[in-house]
Each structure stands twice: as structure tokens, then as C-alpha cells.
Amino acid sequence: MKVDFKNQIDSYTAARGKFSVVTVPAMQFLMIDGHGDPNNAEAYQGALTTIYPVAYALKFLSKGELGRDYAVMPLEALWWSDDMASFTTARDKSRWDWTLMNLVPEWITPEQFDQARETVARKNGAPLLDALRLERFDEGLCVQTLHVGAYDDEGPVLEAMHNEFIPAQGLRMTGKHHEIYLSDPRRTPAEKLKTILRQPVAPA
What we know:
single chain; globular
């Protein structure tokens, strides 16, 4: 039976128009770092064309060698900047730093990650394999919501999250802004894109 972690991990669901406080469990991810506008930064495209082949190589390795099949999870990204207003009121994508992420099961080992990377390397076409890593990530307490619409329309939602809801709950922002892309932008109209917007927090 194929496992779909989106249906098993509560923090992969969110409601449109509602901010929720959730506790996100520690999980392991493929990760790759970069900087710049995701629409035109060469590093971003290189990261995309690296992380997905390894994610699928791990899936096939797990199914073939371990007898454990699972659905490849959606792309995720951490975003940050020296001035967080570049995400909201002074939106400027050229100033963004990011880490692309893809969740992989806990049973995947570093040795299997290396094996999958070697498999992808033999096929060429994944330009940033040396920058890709397998890392455990523990976000803990977070606020999140579901945004439906174009990525460029997220600003007002983030403004409300950061400056209204979070302070009203007696919380403060701590970690990096996190997005989970539930839709494929190649196949989904911009106005129908579904994205979980998440912000780690702590008591103020």
C-alpha cells in the first residue's frame, strides 16, 4: 500500500481564511539553499531540477529494495531576508534567501540518500547534487493558513499573520517563513494555486 503523508500528518492541512496554531513534528527533508528571485534566479531552477530527481530516486529505491512505497511529497520552501518587509509591504523577490525542501520518510537512511544521489548523477541533468543534503528539521509551534491564489497575492495574508494574528495570540515570530506548494503551477491557473503559509512562533 502506498503511503501518502499529506493524509497522515495534520500540519499538511490548513483552512483558507483561518489562521491556526499547530505543532509541527520533527521530520527529515531533502534540502538545498539559494538566493534570489525564484522566477529568474538560475540557482532556483537548478535546485528544482536537482531535488525532484533525487526525491523520485528515493521513492523507487524504497519501493524496490524495502517494499515500502509512498507518494512523493509537495515541494516546500523556507524564505527569509534581512528585511522581512520584502515579503509584505516592500515586496522585493531579488532580496530573498531560500531553502527548497522535500519531505522523505523517516526510514530513509543517509546511505540510501547517497545511493539515490549516485543514481541521479549517472543520468546527468541535476546540476546541484553537491549542494543537496538530507537533514532533520524541527519547527515546533507554528501559525499557518491556506492561501488560494497567485503567489504574488500572498503579501496581505502574511501582513495579517505577522502583524495582527500572531501578536494577538501573545506570540512572536521566531524561525523562517515556510511555504508548502500543494498545487503544480505548471498545470494550475494562478488564481487556483493552493499554498500553506506557515510561520514558526514562540510565546512573546
